[in-house]
What we know:
CATH superfamily of the largest domain: 2,3-Dihydroxybiphenyl 1,2-Dioxygenase, domain 1
CATH class of the largest domain: Alpha Beta
Structural class: alpha+beta
Number of helices: 4
Strand order of the largest sheet: 2-3-4-1-5-8-7-6
Amino acid sequence: MTEARCPDDGRAEGARCTPGTPCWVSLMAHDLAATQEFYAALFGWTYEPGPQQLGPYVRAMLDGCEVAGIGQLPADRHLPIAWTPYLASDDAGEAAEMVRHCGGTVGVGPLDAGEAGRMAIASDPAGAVFGIWQASSHRGTAVAGVPGTPTWNELLTRETEEVAKFYQMLFGYTEKAATSPGLDYLTLRLDDLPVASVRGVGQELPGDRGAHWMTYFEAADVDASAERVVELGGHVISPAQDGRYGRIATVADPEGAVFTLIRSEHPRASG
């Protein structure tokens, strides 16, 4: 595995991500210990304790850098097990109010996560769940571009137009549509840089999941990593294939959390 390097990007001096930038991904699972073991074996993660406001929670580390969070759902909570992206905000309270104003729903918070920051969990008008993160001591994912790190977030929904308006009103994204005929795909941009994408899949949207955010994790070898997922008790949803930005495979962990493995080969700057 390529050694991860924490970037010298000013975080220590209090720099924050531009509002709307995906800055963190988190997973709430029923069996925290087993989930930690799965991702440790797949990505080489180690763990350190994180904020406990919503129950037991750990931060996944790669060579000393924070890359993701994993928490434990209460036994009586039967929620879908899914990776959730957190979008940066300068004020989680104001962002939560804007979510409601724009037709979304706030399910948790805003609440303080110790000294780490302030957070809320919301859903857009199509039902896709995402987090809002107002950073304090915890800035978010501290390394990117190496295997085991989140590298992209994509919203899968029935159609892009209406839901993209929601996110545009919420965070001021500009949009760049795909030029391929028949492809309902938008890149969300901040300061003219691509930060996330929205894909309209029509009737192909899974009936058991509905609209949802997909997290992409970098992998050194997508085919081998997909095989490893199966060995560890997960399963493959879409076998490895060459995609628009690299080789990809969509998989699920043993509790059913879906994510995509990618070996990035092409920049997203063109959208």
